[in-house]
Amino acid sequence: MSKKEVYIEKLEAQLKEWVAKIDELEAKADKAEADLKIKYQEEIKELKKKREEADNKIDELKQASEDSWEELKEGAENVWKEFKSTIDNIVSKFK
Fold this sequence. Notes:
- By secondary structure, this protein is mainly alpha-helical.
- The chain has one domain (3-94).
- It has helices spanning 3-31, 34-63, 69-94.
- Helix 1 (3-31) runs antiparallel to helix 2 (34-63), helix 1 packs parallel to helix 3 (69-94) and helix 2 runs antiparallel to helix 3.
- The radius of gyration is 15 Å and the shape is elongated.
């Protein structure tokens, strides 16, 4: 397995964990009182936007050649850091 494939596999695994976390947050939001429910749904909407960005970055990496994917890696890592920060922040608000 190439470095690129290993890297993409790692990103996909992390993304699956975050999608599961988003699903948990949606379940909590559904059980929340009306005013909190709206706030939570807005936060979840932001997470879904970040997830879409992450999906797009994975697609870019998959389509990149073995020689050029390293150049895209930094951008992917920036998207990942931002997604992680957003999800950690939102998870702390749901507690």
